[in-house]
Hints:
This protein has 14 helices and 10 strands. β2 (27-31) and β3 form a beta hairpin. The protein folds into 2 domains: 4-249, Thymidylate synthase/dCMP hydroxymethylase domain (Thymidylate Synthase, Chain A), CATH 3.30.572; 266-377, no CATH class. It is α/β, with parallel strands linked by helices.
Amino acid sequence: MIGKVFEGSGPNNLYFPVVSEIKENGKPVTSRNLKTKEIRPVMMVLGKPQERFLTCPGRKINSPFQVMESLWILGGRGDVSWISYYLKNIEQFSDGKPEFNAPYGIRMRYYNQHRSVEFVSPYVDQFRNSFEYLNKDPETRHALMSFWNPNFDNRKNVTIDRPCNVTQHFLIRDGKLDLSIFCRSNDVHLGLFNANVVQFSVILEAMAMLLGISVGIQTHFIDSLHYYLDDPITERIFDKAKRAFNAYDHVTPLPFEMSFSEDKSRINSFYSELDDFFIIEKRIRNGNISEETNFFTFNFLNDAAALAKSFYYYKRKNYYLAMDYLSDIKADDIYISALEFIVRKTSEKEIDFVRELLRDRFAFLGEESLIEIENFTLLH
């Protein structure tokens, strides 16, 4: 058989099988003087894209970054300073400039705009364009977004930031919205399961919410799926595989919901709330923690605002308050992932506090589920 197909409900069902396939059957490929193991081509189908957060012992997932990066993309942003607040290491891909060469947000919402002044030209909002295609004709095959732009991704433009995911195609079938992502190159650990699965599932669910239909499947078509041989993540996750944990065995994702005003179109209302979120998030990161958490009609933004408050205290190493502010998050999967992220920085003296938080929130699940959630959260 040429190529490989993987199917599952979400990343927690697929991560080990995909990495195992690369480990066992991947071929050695050296790219940019870095040794990798690669399988290709790959088709990965997520049957429940809302189950987006990987909860894997051995993986140090930064879920606050995952949530914020998804909103940064939806908001059409590409500025380094905003997103690097949540993940400092991302600055290494900026070429030392205030804006990335190929930020997905700008490529999606302002296609043809670029950090280089001489290249600025009229832009296309591809997210709006896809919405309008789908809203007018639910059977259309024209709802496509391209992130690769030869004007800025040509060989002469020297940069370390080029889009890995180059094209996305929305399709309504059986009354549900599907999204197919075409990717030229994916690092299985830091690209596919750490970032892309979350980013595109948020984009998919947001579009479905705007259209008023259900989420279908999310499919990744990847020409080169690989991991780097010097990356310790591979061995670390297999070392801890006996303690595998899937949060979605215990909790259910919170569906995206939003109230739309009659005096604005749905997409304009959506964009307006995104703009308001960035205003409030700026106030929070500047210390205005009294900002109203339930300001938005889009429920995902309310959880993101609560996460921003928690992260404010996380940055200041006040882990008690960072964990306490997570209680305003309504989505249980975000809560579990974000709490585990913070707990890695805590000491033995905070363990009882963590257990108290978990029992207050998840006692209704029963003792068996509660113990599994506790074990995952306190593993680090």
